[in-house]
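Quick log. Single chain, no ligands specified.
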Amino acid sequence: MTTTEIRETAQSTQVEHFDVLIVGAGISGVGGAYHLTQQCPDRSFVVLEALESFGGTWQMHRYPGIRSDSDLYTFGYRFKPWTGPPIATAQEILDYMGEVVEENDLAQHIRYNHRITTARWSSDDNLWTVEATDGDGETQRFTANFLWMCQGYYRHSEGYTPEWEGMDDFHGEIVHPQTWPEDLDYAGKKVVVIGSGATAATLVPAIAGDCEHVTVLQRSPTYFIPGRNVNDLADTLREIEIDEEWVHEIVRRKLLYDQSIFTQRSFDEPEKVKSELLGGVRAYLGDDFYIETHFTPTYRPWRQRIAFVPDGDIFEGIKSGKASMVTDEIDRFTGAGILLKSGEELEADIIVTATGFNMSVLGDIDVVIDDKPLVFSDTVNYRGMMFTGIPNMLWIFGYFRASWTLRADLLADFVCRLLQHMDEKGVSRVDVALRPEDKDMELLPWIDSENFNPGYLMRALELLPKRGAKREWQHTQDYWREKDEIPAIDLDGPEFVYR
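-> predicted structure:
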């Protein structure tokens, strides 16, 4: 079907039909829309976005200093050159995405303020029926042949804040970066930021200059990679007037090459990599700083995400005395701040809980398969993108150790190839199913916690699909193999069941 059809239900409610329905207009959804226009130009599609504009994370998060923690040469799309600094602000990323939307006339396909509530699959019709609540509170209905889940993996409406004793006793304000109040006045205030991940590394240098003091309170240290926010190779190529498309591709390949070596070294020689990472911090703070106490994690590098710190800005704040690092555990909140288990009390006017986020499994959408509510954890994942028992659906779940968009682009190619293959076969449904040789395959949690174990993932592990002992039934997190494996997938392999 190549044009939008308007259908009437028995209740006279208007239903719009599309070949493909994309959930979310963030980095994955906008990219997916672009690829559909280029690779499947005759296919009708719509993008439903809960927020008032495109951007996803970069639209929702408004805390001071928000920026990428991946370089934009690999976080940016492969089809649009990035010309700014490697680490970019949220506004720079939104501007970049806006150019993609405008240059490719994608706005006509996006419906903003459409929060999807339910998605129902009917095997009788081989269709998804999707209900969304629009900005006026009205229910809008859509049908689609294929559902492309690009909504990301965490809940935008609220971040994760543990329940600490005495939180109600605190006389100041408690704020999570994900829901940062626009009118929050932190000038001249004492601020305690709980957590030391990428969010804290971004937020602290952005506010430290205006606060009386910022204290970063962490239960345990994390790894950072400090460095200059420039790419010398890109600058050299521009100096000799190389075309931006070539600059983008050359720099992208060089970065990916370097990242592949670094990732492999984190497995092969973790102690050496650890020493190098700590040396980078020591270069900013000096040998006299308590590196062992505050910046030496107990886990090997890359078991959790490593944040790049442009120009070492959080370390410069610590060095100047405007910020400080405390490694301890919280006993309870008090009226004046936080009492630590060591007995020390941190005074605060504002407490920021940069303690992570809550995973959103399938966008918190109620998914129903043939009148039966889907239990997502009962499914087995196929390469972290399709799932047994869920027809005509693909979920974009990116990489932890590489830029998210690398996988979004890779899987967009796969979706378009799959849709074209279904046309060639004259079928309207595709499922993935365990093959006869997978009958006795061991089923395991979504990811190996010895490999990667951030808190948000561990808290939601029981809600996620199973992985199998074989590579095909895992989200391997290995871009450097997937970039060759996914384009080479045999769409007529026994794991694909067409009807």
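Confidence is low (pLDDT under 50) at residues 1-12.
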